[in-house]
Amino acid sequence: MKQLHKQSTSTRKEEEIPISQTPPYSPKSLKHPRSLPRSLNYILKEQRLLFILVGILIGSTFFIIQPSLSALSSSDSRPRISAQNRELAVTTVRNPFGDGRNYNKYSNGVGRVPVGIGAKRKRIVVTGGAGFVGSHLVDKLIAMGDDVIVIDNFFTGRKENVVHLFGNPRFELIRHDVVEPILLEVDQIYHLACPASPVHYKYNPVKTIKTNVMGTLNMLGLAKRIGARFLLTSTSEVYGDPLEHPQKETYWGHVNPIGVRSCYDEGKRTAETLTMDYHRGDGVEVRIARIFNTYGPRMCLDDGRVVSNFVAQAIRGQPMTIYGDGKQTRSFQYVSDLVDGLVALMEGEHVGPFNLGNPGEFTMLQLAEVVKETIDPSATIEFKPNTADDPHKRKPDITKAKELLNWEPNISLKEGLPRMVNDFRNRILNEDEGKGNK
């Protein structure tokens, strides 16, 4: 018991002995005295102070030098734009129409547009963009500085019409039939896809009306989903064989719904109906253009249209074919005039429909004489029976386009026809050489 008492007593005494206040030896305590604050202690470790000083030096140098560099660059760039070598600042796109006008990449003549100044570059899809009218429209849009996506199944379109744009970063080409849906993100849709000449739309009339109905439905559905503005290129054929002359947009037409041309005529009338229903029912922004006879470079050589027929036949030394008595009339506009009208309609605030055509009226006999005068005065004329449902008169009233779009055609037939002849002559010559004919 005494021993147990002694052990407990000794244990209690050991607990009461205070622990020594002297800290154990540490080499770090010699390097950094405890009197320094912990933040300074951290900075002084491992050369952190050196890195902080270097960072401050670099930052101050940047803020001192950068304003002077930007001022110098802005002062140097101004004289270059106004100097004699203006091509460095303004990119002039080759005129696709051959009409003497220049199209600049930047309309204000400045190579670089500051943020917040100038119009937003649009992303635009053109269905049928490798065709005759479509390819000229694409050239115009590219020249305006927009990004363009061409959709074409190449039934009547040709890659040769857009090959000069291959490699342009603002141009895309998609081989696709608009009868099938497609998903894109664009701001505007120019819907031109459809065979437009009698030879082509009569070749497969069911396909023609499917293109007009299903193709238009698909592109309107796309416009609805993405909030794009939609332009339908309709046709003067919606007036049929008109009982009103000249034709105004208020005229409802005189069309044979079961004739050989009805796949095109009624197809376009249905496309106009769909367009207006999407506009009224779903709030889609739409525009409708009714295009009258158009001519120019890149037309198909043998598409059955009167201007291309006459020109190709005269160049080949063949008789020019007139169907009927030659007294039926047409109005002919040059393709660049039409393209200007389409862009004015798309960029305007009016739905339409709008007649886009040249009110200058020619009989087939008068047109043949102009072609003879331009190509070969010795060319002959051959008469054949008229085709079914061929309109006797066709002349647009363009008062509405003049007043609301500030548009009217500027190029006369005698001025525009030689430009088309040069294009046809080169293509027919190459075609003959490819066949081995000399």
TrEMBL record:
How is this protein situated with respect to the membrane? Single-pass type II membrane protein
Where is the protein found, in the record's own terms? Golgi apparatus, Golgi stack membrane
TM helices/strands, residue ranges? 49-69
List, separated by semicolons, the cofactors it needs: NAD(+)
UniProt xrefs under Pfam families: GDP_Man_Dehyd
| Amino acid composition bias (Polar residues), ranges on this chain | 1-10
User: Which cellular component appears as one GO term in the record?
Assistant: cytoplasm
Check the record and name the InterPro entries matching this protein. Answer: NAD(P)-bd_dom, NAD(P)-bd_dom_sf, UXS-like
Family matches, as SUPFAM superfamilies: NAD(P)-binding Rossmann-fold domains
For whether the record's keyword set contains NAD, the answer is yes
Question: Region entry Disordered: which residue ranges?
Answer: 1-33
Q: What is its EC number?
A: 4.1.1.35
Pathway terms, separated by semicolons: Nucleotide-sugar biosynthesis; UDP-alpha-D-xylose biosynthesis; UDP-alpha-D-xylose from UDP-alpha-D-glucuronate: step 1/1
* Sample GO molecular function, one term: UDP-glucuronate decarboxylase activity
Keyword Lyase belongs to the record:
yes
Q: Its function? A: Catalyzes the NAD-dependent decarboxylation of UDP-glucuronic acid to UDP-xylose. Necessary for the biosynthesis of the core tetrasaccharide in glycosaminoglycan biosynthesis.
Q: What is this protein called?
A: UDP-glucuronate decarboxylase
